[in-house]
Design a protein that fits this description.
The chain is an all-alpha fold. It is built from 4 helices and no strands. α2 crosses α3 and α2 packs across α4. The longest helix is centred in the C-terminal third of the chain and has 20 residues.
Length: about 80
């Protein structure tokens, strides 16, 4: 509180930034990514704002959903 961020704070912020960047790169809204990943939109919102640290299973669901969206995007011609 008021001091330097801890390692876990930095991990959470780094994860949040990466998630937002990748989600936007594939053109998914928070609601759409949450739906595809099977997580609550509120949960994704908190993760992306660095408000909570998701467990590994949640991170994996989000990564799998983003990877799938990237593959779909790559398959669309033009």
């Amino acid at each position: 509180s008021g001091g330097e961020p801890s390692a876990s704070d930095l991990d959470r912020i780094t994860l949040a930034r990466k998630l937002v960047r990748r989600r936007r790169a594939v053109g998914l809204s928070q609601a759409e990514l949450a739906r595809r990943a099977g997580v609550r939109a509120e949960t994704l919102n908190r993760i992306e704002r660095g408000r909570n640290t998701p467990d590994f299973a949640t991170v994996r669901k989000l990564v799998v959903a983003i990877n799938a969206a990237e593959r779909e995007q790559a398959e669309i011609p033009g």
